[in-house]
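Structure in, sequence out. Go:
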């Protein structure tokens, strides 16, 4: 009898998520063989010794007896009220509990928001580089991800005129990731105003991933998009994973702001999709009011002397001291996105570099092209390890890049 393999969804061949992909699987194999690795591929605070703040843990513990039943598909009303009040304090218009949706992390909400929006062939403007879930979720919901450049020579900030040039009759939404993953760019208010104007003139839904909203460095200032967007339909996404170091709790939220008559059908579509998955993680919801009204626990980590700040400083110094690396200083989020330059960049392939760095030097990073960029000379590292580890990591990176540079010099001599 002929055996037939189970076919998979065709669009999956276009989906990339190298953060947890082939290289991560190879790292797992190496660890099973007894190799000690330094893994800088995922922004997972708990894996680096961070803990969720104690007042968040206490809020869950105190309410645990009430967490057995399902909640409303949008989440507990009291929790949604706390989220709405938080956004009202930031100037968001029409921020009420009925417009708040709680999900199993921002990742689930990204999928729901795009599924509620897109018909086959609809286009979504996505930054390049992007957090690759945005491109993947667009494709898996039968849309087309149209990437707009955020170039290193412009500090990884987009050019609004270039963004607008990508708009077609099929464009439905504009994605903004601020502070940005993977680059650490923080968007100034004037730039956000111009992007909102593009969305307003072309009737686009704004989708703003603000999961790193409290993580900024030096004089960078986070500007919440909903307040700038005003009556323009806008989804603002946030959660407990990064600012509050509680990734495993899978607790995120989305606020739908904008003029009521323009968002009614879309609101109902998101509500329907939320109902189909019943509800989000209930215990984690009880931590949200404590997170939004309690003490600031992320600010000290991002200030001089704080762990994230000092690790970021160590990365900046390591890149400055290397003849093979260049870095646009990250202003926010939990990552740096160095570029390989000079002789080492000759014929450089970021994926092959990441694989060799893992196999030979025992360091796991993410190739820059995984973030949907055309160039192949970048890689991403997280800022979560202790600053003291960074020197060793970049010593190993430089060791490999020096080999590449020497090989390039020898090739030139041979040709001459």
């Amino acid at each position: 009898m002929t055996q037939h393999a189970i076919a998979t969804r065709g669009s999956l061949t276009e989906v990339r998520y190298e953060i947890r992909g082939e290289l991560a699987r190879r790292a797992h194999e190496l660890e099973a063989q007894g190799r000690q690795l330094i893994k800088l591929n995922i922004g997972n605070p708990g894996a680096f010794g961070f803990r969720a703040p104690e007042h968040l843990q206490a809020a869950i513990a105190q309410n645990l007896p009430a967490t057995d039943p399902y909640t409303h598909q949008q989440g507990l009303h009291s929790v949604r009220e706390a989220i709405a009040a938080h956004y009202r304090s930031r100037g968001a218009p029409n921020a009420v509990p009925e417009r708040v949706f709680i999900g199993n992390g921002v990742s689930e909400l990204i999928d729901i928001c795009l599924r509620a929006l897109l018909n086959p062939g609809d286009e979504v403007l996505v930054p390049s580089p992007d957090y690759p879930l945005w491109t993947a979720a667009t494709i898996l919901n039968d849309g087309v991800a149209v990437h707009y450049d955020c170039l290193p020579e412009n500090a990884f900030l987009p050019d609004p005129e270039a963004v607008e040039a990508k708009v077609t009759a099929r464009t439905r939404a504009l994605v903004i990731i601020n502070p940005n993953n993977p680059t650490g760019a923080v968007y100034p208010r004037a730039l956000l105003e111009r992007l909102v104007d593009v969305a307003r003139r072309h009737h686009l839904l704004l989708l703003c991933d603000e999961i790193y909203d409290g993580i900024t460095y030096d004089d960078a200032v986070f500007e919440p998009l909903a307040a700038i967007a005003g009556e323009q339909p806008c989804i603002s996404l946030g959660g407990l994973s990064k600012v509050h170091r509680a990734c495993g709790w899978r607790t995120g939220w989305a606020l739908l702001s904008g003029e009521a008559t323009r968002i009614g059908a879309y609101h109902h579509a998101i509500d329907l999709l939320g109902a189909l998955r019943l509800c989000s993680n209930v215990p984690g919801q009880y931590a949200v009011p404590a997170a939004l009204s309690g003490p600031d626990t992320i600010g000290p980590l991002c200030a001089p002397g704080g762990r994230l700040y000092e690790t970021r400083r160590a990365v900046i110094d390591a890149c400055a001291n290397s003849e093979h690396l260049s870095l646009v200083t990250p202003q926010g989020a939990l990552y740096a996105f160095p570029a390989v330059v000079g002789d080492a960049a000759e014929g450089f392939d970021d994926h092959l570099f990441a694989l060799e760095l893992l196999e030979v030097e025992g360091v796991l990073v993410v190739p820059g092209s995984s973030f949907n960029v055309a160039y192949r000379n970048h890689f991403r590292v997280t800022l979560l390890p202790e600053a003291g580890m960074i020197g060793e990591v970049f010593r190993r990176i430089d060791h490999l890049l020096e080999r590449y540079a020497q090989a390039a010099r020898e090739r030139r001599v041979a040709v001459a």
